[in-house]
Amino acid sequence: MPRRNVQILVVACVVCLLCAYRSSRYARVVTYALEQIEFKALEPKPARKLAEAAIRGMTEVLDPYSSYISEEDLPRFAEELDRQFGGVGIEIFIEPKTRKICVASPLPNTPAQRAGIRPGDIIIAINGEPTEGLSLEQAAKKMRGEAGTEVTLTIQTPGEEKPRDVKLKREVIKAETVLGDSRNPDGSWNFVLEEHPDIGYVRLPTFAEDSDKRLRQILEQLRKKNIRGLILDLRDDPGGRLEVAVAICDMFIKSGVIVTTRYRDGRIKAQYTANGRPVCPDLPLVVLINRFSASASEIVAACLQDHHRAKVVGERSFGKGTVQELIQLEPGMGLLKLTTAAYWRPSGKNIHRMAGADESQEWGVKPDPGWEVPLEKEELEILLRYRALRDIYLPPGSPKPEGFDKIPENFRDRQLDRAVECLRKEIEAASGKESLGHSRA
After folding, report:
1. Active-site residue list
2. Does the pLDDT of residue 12 top 90, yes or no?
């Protein structure tokens, strides 16, 4: 297609989008501006770049969650949404003192683990290029790539004199979306609490495409272990797929509304209800949330709280209760991620925190009365390091990675401790009901 025709097509894409806006006057103004830039700018830009900038500019004046996703950004957007990418299978961190890129953990059954890369190893170079000064995102991007391609990491293992080159063939890596409390010797997750083996513990860092299927498998495994209760940890979970959140709620409630989405005028867009086939309809349950629990995690916490199916422990959630619709633009022009509706709880209360809303207003999810566990910044930072250390896969005999020396030996996750305390009360209450039921029989 001639270059001139491509320019016309791209500009037409923006114009059509603008024409959907009620005031045609403003659409004409933007169209005129595009024409003037194209014909008169001293340093002209390709029409595609102008179109992308115009769309991006429009979304920037909307809410914080609306955005433009260009064609070149689509693969990364898909990776973030579904936690699947081509890579070597290692989690990395920056050592605070030296600012070096270090291995936190090789994921089980990945190229990195099979090559003998260990926690604490320092990545000196990637394909011969030094990692000094790189951010985590930049280093990760260099290690990722199409499955089947190769990447060479220069590794320095603490205690060894010379670094070594490790050539790895990238594979499709599915980042773990359902985590446990600690690692087993083989690197898999242990889904019961070490100090309380009769209590199941499941942590969701995101609501990815297969999170509900994986959670269902784990719940079936835990049922066979005859656990007495379950803690569902949604702290720091920013959300994800709505349909996955609905499916997870379905595993715990017998009937009723899970969540409703409403347009800006209050009209119901969609209402999601339980299918009546829960996996664990009566298992005592506690949901753990904090100030960073948002979106899909708030849907789950709110649903289980409103149905009196679970106690909620921790901190008030973030208050991000909006629906983003992905609108496909012209071929090659990417997606428009546009906020079009809001989530409403089964109780009829709004989840979303509107601009300017204060603590006294109704938004988000609050812990049940008496089960609030707020954390100050310093304690939260230590907790994040404590949790990261427990997440690391340490093969027998491996040294503790550097950078975790500031965690006190006697540090406790106070929020988790309170969740256990709350769950014990729920287990006792459930046992009392069973005893009462037997006496009537």
Report:
1. 295, 306, 320
2. no
